[in-house]
Amino acid sequence: MTTEFLRELGLKLLCLSNGHGEDAIALRILRELQQHPHPPQLAVFPLVGEGQAFAQLENARIIGPVQRMPSGGFIYMDRKEFLRDVKGGLLQLTVAQFKAIRAWVRSQTESGNQDAVILACGDIVPLLFAWLGGAPYAFVGTAKSDYYLRDENGPLPRKSHIFGWISSPRSVYFPWERWLMTRNRCRAVFVRDALTAETLEKLGIPAYNFGNPMMDGLEPENPAGFYGRGAELRERERSLVITLLPGSRAPEAYANWQLIVEAAAGILSLFADRKLLFLGAISPELNLEALRPILEFFGWRQDGETKTQRREGSILRPPVSSPQEIQKESPNLLLPLTFVQRKATLILTQQSFNDCLYEADLAVAMAGTATEQFVGLGKPAIAIPGNGPQFTPAFAEAQSRLLGPSLILVKHPAEVAGTVQSLFRDPDRLQLIAENGLRRMGEPGAAARIAKCLIQRFGGGDSNSKLPTIQ
User: Fold this and answer.
1) How many CA atoms lie within 13 A of 387 on its CB side?
2) What SS3 class is residue 282?
3) CA–CA dist 391, 454 (Å, integer)
4) Which of 72, 82, 305, 338 has the least C-beta neighbours within 10 A?
5) Closest listed residue to residue 1, CA positions, set 114, 77, 153, 108
6) Higher confidence at residue 80 or residue 273?
7) Is 13:117 a contact under the CB 8 Å cutoff?
8) 325 to each of 288, 305, 330, 411, how far by Cα in Å?
9) DSSP secondary structure letters along 47-93
């Protein structure tokens, strides 16, 4: 297909996604596609939730019905949640969504446009819908990785035998998922890491490892000037910085917060002679005031007026105006809350997620995507299993397989402080964690590399041109 022909008809791309995290990954790829000299015409279809992330995307309409389900998208973790969704209209919604996808493909065919393609982002659900849609498709596998089953040294011991019967070479993807990936209309499969791509390639699947888009766009809002003249002295004198990640969904996140603050209390006791800075990275969907009671119970008190603070040379940039003036000008702006206890400071923020990741030495985490992003920066995270519905012991154990030595599981908040101490007494272990995080999560720029490959596979690019690679 020539570029001139592409200009005449234009590539039409429908993106299917099924969850908040999947929407965010899809959004990054679609934005990169729009930067192409001859961008495709985009349509989107969030199959789970209302797809609010796509409101940030210009000229991309939602093609069918969307609805927020009671489970919030975690039906695969709990049978009760699934039944709640069925009662809430899940089956009717699924049928309507399938009809909408078929109608979109049919409308492109009837208009004479043979360049209609589907990009499925998520798991088996959008992948199946892409195949049923009848158009050529590509798949971005956001959820699965062969690290769940093995690492570079071989198979991992496992509690479940659910994967035991899968044909060799072993793959985390089930046979029916791999069947969908081997269809002629499936032109590309973008996986999370090299280990997964290697297995799928051996099975004849067009798998590519261009990195993980969830590591894109994590540059700090307030770049640190920390590593300059006198950095060694400042390193010895600075605060130990710990990011707190309770998750994003209520009411689970509030229950997680109680466990995390209890863990912070143990760190305060063990590191009583060192300055500590805790950064609570709180989802905008949560209420900061709901986090206050547990902080006060563990002895934290609010530090005068609401403000941000500056770590030695960086941390969250303080506002140029007083908090009262900012609140008057922007009443919907959620200002950070600052608490103090002994030589420690705790900042709750809903605005500076990237800074919270970059500034921290480690994290106490009970989250999904946020934990993976933190580990991808080469830093250790300590996890305490909760009661769910997301961050259950089973989820935490699976996440520890995915992230390997970068994620340390403890059974109780009281164990966190000792784990922190042992980590910082072992520089070789910290170096291993830094290398592991990069290897498992990949370098930034994945969305751009995936977009370039999509244009080459579907948009008439030079088939002999070099595919994007991880730099």
Assistant:
1) 10
2) coil
3) 34
4) 305
5) 114
6) 273
7) yes
8) 20, 12, 9, 45
9) SSB--GGGGGSTTEEE-S--B--TTSS-GGG-HHHHHHHHHTTHHHH
- Taking the C-alpha atoms of residue 49 and residue 67, their distance in angstroms, rounded to an integer, is 5
To the question of pTM greater than 0.70 for the whole model, the response is: yes
- Whole-number average pLDDT of the chain: 83
Report all structural domains of the chain as residue ranges with CATH numbers, in order of start. Answer: 3-216+444-458 (3.40.50.2000), 232-441 (3.40.50.2000)
Query: What's the whole-number mean pLDDT along residues 6-11?
Result: 56
Task: Report which of 187, 162, 184 is spatially closest to residue 175, judged by C-alpha positions.
Answer: 162
Task: Please give the single-letter amino acid code of residue 29.
Answer: I
pLDDT confidence tier of residue 307, bands split at 50, 70 and 90: very low
Residue 75 has pLDDT above 70, yes or no: no
Query: Percentage of residues in the chain with pLDDT exceeding 70?
Result: 79
Q: What is the mean pLDDT of residues 179-189?
A: 97
Are 350 and 411 spatial neighbours (Cβ–Cβ below 8 Å)? no
pLDDT digits (tens, 9 = 90+) for 241-273: 999 999 988 899 999 999 999 999 999 999 998
* Cα gap 326→116, rounded to integer Å: 48
Highest average pLDDT, of 155-159, 164-168, 273-277, comes from: 273-277
Residue 120 CB coordination number (10 Å): 30
3 state DSSP class of 242: strand
The C-alpha angle 151, 157, 163, rounded to 5 degrees, equals 85
Neighbours of 342 (CB within 10 A): 12
Per this entry, what is the length of the chain? 471
Beta carbons of 119 and 140 less than 8 angstroms apart: yes
Torsion of CA 59, 63, 68, 71, to 10 degrees: -110
Which amino acid would we find at residue 9?
L
Query: Per-residue pLDDT for 172 more than 50?
Result: yes
- Give SS3 for 321: coil
Helix, coil or strand: residue 338? strand
How many CB atoms are closer than 10 A to CB 95? Answer: 10
